[in-house]
Specification:
Blueprint: H1 3-42, H2 62-83
């Protein structure tokens, strides 16, 4: 085969491959959009959440923060001591 023939065959093969990928991605986008619309149609509406009458969540005490800090410090110390080996 001559160089122009090889180049023409290569370009044809490239166009075929790129065309196939483009068609596949277009079909994929179409199907995902269709499935999203179907799911939105059949999904039940979320139940409205009644606002709580201004009640604030209970604030954590100082003791709980100290305990959390101690646990985190112990975990970091253990990780670093294993990592040095």
């Amino acid at each position: 085969m001559q160089d122009p023939e090889l180049l023409q065959e290569g370009l044809g093969l490239m166009a075929l491959g790129m065309g196939f990928v483009f068609v596949f991605l277009a079909v994929l986008v179409f199907l995902l959009t269709l499935m999203s619309g179907i799911i939105r149609r059949f999904q039940p509406a979320p139940a409205p959440v009644a606002p709580s009458g201004g009640a604030k969540p209970a604030s954590r005490g100082k003791g709980q923060d100290d305990e959390t800090l101690a646990v985190i410090s112990a975990a970091v110390h253990r990780y670093r001591s294993k990592r040095r080996r």
